[in-house]
Amino acid sequence: MSATSVSPMVAPTLRAFGLATALVSVSALADPYDIHIYQLGNPQENATGYTPRADANFRVFARQYAAGMTSVNLAPPETLGHSGMSFTAELSVIDFGGGDNQIKTEGTLHQPMLLPSIHIRKGLPFSFEIGARGGWVEKSRMGTATLELKWALNEGFAYLPDIGVRGNITKLLNSRDFDLTAGGLDIGLGKQFAIGGMVTLTPYVGWNLVFVGASTSNVDFNPKRSLAQGDTPAEQYKDFYVFSSLFAGANSHNRFYGGIRFIGGVLQLGGEISYSAVGTFKDGKTGENRTVAPVIAYNSTVGFDF
Predict the structure, then answer these.
(1) Worst-scoring range by mean pLDDT, 109-118, 128-137, 235-244?
(2) What are the start-end ranges of the H helices in the chain?
(3) How many Å apart are CA 176 and CA 99, to the nearest integer?
(4) Which residue from 258, 219, 209 is spatially nearest to 67, judged by alpha carbons?
(5) Which residues contact 160 (CB under 8 A, 6 or more apart)?
(6) What is the pTM assigned to this prediction?
(7) Which whole number is the average pLDDT over 245-257?
(8) Concatenated DSSP letters for 149-168?
(9) Residue 164's closest CA among 123, 111, 116, 119?
(10) Disulfide: which of 3, 162, 248, 293 matches 155 by Cβ 3.0-4.6 Å?
């Protein structure tokens, strides 16, 4: 017998062992706050776990979660100057509210959720500034990545406030079975006040229009199938379907924020409150109105500005 051949009696055992190993590996890799979107219900009629509200549930989830991961700015409208740079560590404490909450996780989601991040900003000529932020969703394998570009329309005048516009895009990383991206444009208003020679305080407020897009790959709506089913060709790929995609142009909400920044020498401290009014939409399948609870975040930062 060839060294690479397998006995017909041994082959099923090996397949079952391989499937069991894969299931154990997936389970072991799942952290408490990893998202399990199959729990939103199956959108496919006459299939396992069919729920008429499933697509709307996915839409509620995507808009809620996007509001959470975009609920931070932590920078006034003024820019750093063409040679300036800022490096900060940030923490967002996010409250998704109650009501129609569709954030389905491996374990129980205990609110508020923490999102620590690192934020780097670099000044450019002509009152422009670029920035990047990388975050981690606590108790999960997921992260967030943000790119931003800001332009100060007015800054540095003695008796006039600073005005800036910022474009940004944020993507959820390492999510399973789905993609979630949010982008937007915000307008900020602030004013820097000097105290002594080396200390400044800058209060600021702003409005952010956020657009949310989301899609899924094939989702397994029967992940707890038995070992015997998993080894049956007719059952292996049964109950795999997709949710209806969310198009950014049809899924937007308003975010309002206010904060204050302190700089002493090169040390930078800041705090900010964010309120995302996610709003209401009509479920095209059931006809009911779905109201997404507001998302409130409390953000803080510490770092260096030089």
Answers:
(1) 235-244
(2) 11-29, 54-69, 227-230, 233-236
(3) 25
(4) 209
(5) 154
(6) 0.87
(7) 96
(8) EEEEEE---SSS-EEEEEEE
(9) 123
(10) 162
